[in-house]
Amino acid sequence: MRDSRRTRHLLVISLVSALALAIVPLPDAVAPYRPDWVALVLIFWGLMAPERIGLLTAFAMGLALDTLNGALLGQHALAMVTVVYLSVRFHLRIRVFPIWQLSVCVVFLLCLYEFILFWIDGVAGRTVPTIERWAPVVSGALVWPFILVYLASVRRDTQTRV
């Protein structure tokens, strides 16, 4: 029971931190390279603790991100639900990979996430510069190993603490 509460607190703290990182103002030169923090954290929890996260959590985080960014309501929610569904569905196959193969899978999930956003923007008639669309995939791929190692170590520490 105590272990479950600690993991839940870690999950909430990591998701709130990801939302905060997603809305922190950055200089114009660096802003297009902001990783999709919320998607990366949701992918981590979908792969490492699928019993803790679900599609409703992904939907709520997507709506929160839409609201905070002023995007079309439901745009990020649909993309997050799709990515988390695939993460949870194939977590037993993916999480046993070495870190470089896991990173490749995460890049594919981030590409799918951005493609869904691209598709919705196209339907809505909104044009987004190419650099703003695909640079977060590259930066997310570079940040993913650090997120994986950090969150896994914090999760392990909270589970082993008496």
Characterization of this structure:
It is built from seven helices and no strands. The chain starts with a helix and ends with a helix. The longest helix is centred in the C-terminal third of the chain and has 31 residues, at 130-160. The protein has one domain (2-23, 33-160). It has 162 residues and is an all-alpha fold. The radius of gyration is 15 Å and the shape is globular.
**Would you tell me the overall average pLDDT?**
92
Give the strand tally: 0
Class per helix and strand makeup: mainly alpha
Number of domains: 1
Gyration radius, in Å: 15 Å
* Strand residues, percent: under 5%
Shape: globular
Largest sheet: none
What percentage of residues falls in helices of 4 or more residues? over 70%
The low-confidence runs, each spanning 5 or more residues with pLDDT under 50, are: none
Tally of individual helices: 7
Order of helices and strands: HHHHHHH
Ends distance: 12 Å
Provide key terms for this protein.
162 residues; mainly alpha; 7 helices; globular
Offer a concise description of the structure.
It contains seven helices and no strands. It has 162 residues and is mainly alpha-helical. The model has no long low-confidence stretch (mean pLDDT 92).
